[in-house]
Amino acid sequence: MAVTQLSLPSLDRIASGKVRDLFALPNDPDRLLFVASDRLSAFDVVMKNGIPNKGAILTLTSAHWFRVLAERVPGLRTHFISLDVPAGVVTADEAAALRNRTMQVRRLQVLKIEAIVRGYLTGSAWKEYQAKGTVHGLAMPAGMRLSQKFPEAIYTPSTKADLGAHDENIHPDDAWKELGDKETARQVQELSLKIYNAAASYAEERGIIIADTKFEFAKDAEGNIYLVDEVLTPDSSRFWPKESYEVGKEADSFDKQFIRNWLIREGLKGKEDVVVPDDICAVTEERYKDAFCKLTGKKFEDAIAN
Ligand code: ATP
Ligand code: MG
């Protein structure tokens, strides 16, 4: 059964996003409990039902990446502290509900930018390119085809809209207006590209192309920048199987694209209260698990047993 709402009366909920809920930890104001539900959102709308195991898949995938990136991107700071359910602050039932879907993270001030990096031409970037030859206002080589790899990965941020509103693509040179200063904007851009390039080569060795992805960053009181939120999951990224990749063709994917395509086919894009049929949920769950297994080298069922 998918869990769309967790009941955790022992903890104070401080924020709820489309997929995650953030809880304060008593006695530790510097930490948060970052809890992933099984909720599914697409086109900025949350579906009525969820995908079984999705919260655990997202959490364990993110935790895996935090460890990989700590090795591959020297000096990178991340909000990840541990996967442990904090001892002594929740009941046994709550601890069981939280298992595998929660991370203890550093509590930080999240920056108002969606730090998107694109390695391949698809999605809204493909639409803009066809209309204007640009991507987020950046000039791109002529004659590019759908799903083609960019000569090098590009940083293409968008605004971070409040719940219910849509993010807007912006030119990277305008990101500082969202962030308040040019030095922060420069660091976020540089980090985003470094992390993407490290992750893309790691994933490619394991048969997955990371076509694009979205990072979030935050600052501590001293102004240091941290990678936060979920990272490099099938929710925040387009993952394509390398074996069936072809330029000029819409790629098969391990990610939410399958649900997006179903919503479009059914005329349900952007509609509220959509119930996703069981067979579509089951395929999505399998794809998410498949991506987890390819990236981590572990079967999901074995990973949650530990
Ligand atoms: P958003 O567009 O803000 O991500 P969302 O609906 O996608 O909204 P979720 O991803 O479900 O939100 O929830 C995660 C929320 O937690 C996000 O608002 C994210 O910015 C915030 N967040 C992530 N890491 C931290 C952190 N270390 N400290 C404080 N807030 C965080
Ligand atoms: Mg989010």
TrEMBL record:
GO terms for cellular component: cytoplasm. GO terms for molecular function: ATP binding; phosphoribosylaminoimidazolesuccinocarboxamide synthase activity. Keywords: ATP-binding, Ligase, Nucleotide-binding, Purine biosynthesis. SUPFAM superfamilies: SAICAR synthase-like. Its EC number is 6.3.2.6. HAMAP family: SAICAR_synth. Belongs to the SAICAR synthetase family. This is Phosphoribosylaminoimidazole-succinocarboxamide synthase.
